[in-house]
Every structure is written in structure tokens, then in C-alpha cells.
Amino acid sequence: MYSNMLRNNLKNLIKSCRSVQLQIIDSVGTNHIITNQRRFKSDLYEPDYLISLQPDEPVYDCLNLQLKGYDYAILEACQSQIHRYAEVMGLQVEDCWATPAQQLKVQRFKPGSTALDAEYQLNIYERNVQVVDVPAWALGTLLRVSRALLPEGCTLNVHEHTPEHEEIRYVPDNQLIDLKQQLEGMGGSRADKKKKR
């Protein structure tokens, strides 16, 4: 129910940003609706040098919205809602992905001693939503909506996309890595031996 209300409010906010309507009531009592559409630089009747002096709105090239939490199902539902709201806002969602879970071993000790009281195995799951060409005005709205959708116990981080974020997505093949190390230990492959000669 809360997400439906938030979705409707967001749609109304976006519609109101696109066009502004003013209602004027005459002394006779008739309603006149004046619609003021958003003006673009090409629509202005200004000299070119004045248009070029106006600052362009900043645009973020590629941003990752990174969600982390302990429950995968809740985290995935939150990620799909953020994806849907970004598309409703007209932002381009480039990619969405999950990364392998981090496994943590947490130990609790008895007060004032080194004796173990309890031990827990925790999994931290991560989901990412990648948006590209985000205008600065839309980023604030997207972050407010994302924070409102964020379930309890989950965290949201926003950062620019780097190659490290791409590499962490894939699970390394330990068997292949071991075979490559054994091959190098035996002197390398045949192609490498021919190149040395």
C-alpha cells in the first residue's frame, strides 16, 4: 500500500515538473487554464552569446546504486522497485546484477574473558542497479525514493562505476587457476616455449 502511494506521488511529481498549469478565475467565475510548457534553449528569443553563457545542467555518466543486506529475497525486491522507479522517472537503467555473497564468521566472547559464548555465520548479499546519463536534478529525487524504499537492515551506497565493480561480479574458477599454476610450474605452454627460442 505504501509503495503504491509513493509510486502515485512520484508520477504526479514528474508530471508537474514537465508542465506547469495555472488556473485563473475571472470576476465572472469562469476558469481559464494556462499551460506553461518547459522552455528549451532553442526556444528562447535571445542572442546566441547569451544562450551560451547559461550553465548546462551537470550529468553523471555512470552511477551504481549498491544495496547490501542479510536477506536476499528482501534485497532483490528492493532492487526491482528501485529499477522500476528509475524507469518511471525516465532514467536509463544500463544493467542490474548480483555479486557473490560475503560469508562472515562472528564470535561473541563472555564478558572479561576469552571464552567463546556464541558463534554466528552471516551472509552479506549485494545487488546493484546501474544508471547512466543521470541529470543532477533527477539524482536527488532518485536517492530520496531509494532511501524511502530501503528495508530495515539494508544499506545503500552510490558511487561511480569502476572496473573493480565489474570484476567482483564473477566467481573465480579456482580449478582453472590451479591448472594454470601447475602449467607454469612445469615450464609453460608449448606456444610460450616456441616464442622463447
From TrEMBL:
Pfam family, one: Ribosomal_S10
Residues in Small ribosomal subunit protein uS10 domain copies: 64-159
GO CC annotation terms, alphabetical: mitochondrial ribosome; ribonucleoprotein complex
Keyword tags: Ribonucleoprotein, Ribosomal protein
SMART domains: Ribosomal_S10
Name of protein: Small ribosomal subunit protein uS10 domain-containing protein
Organism in which the protein naturally occurs: Bombyx mori
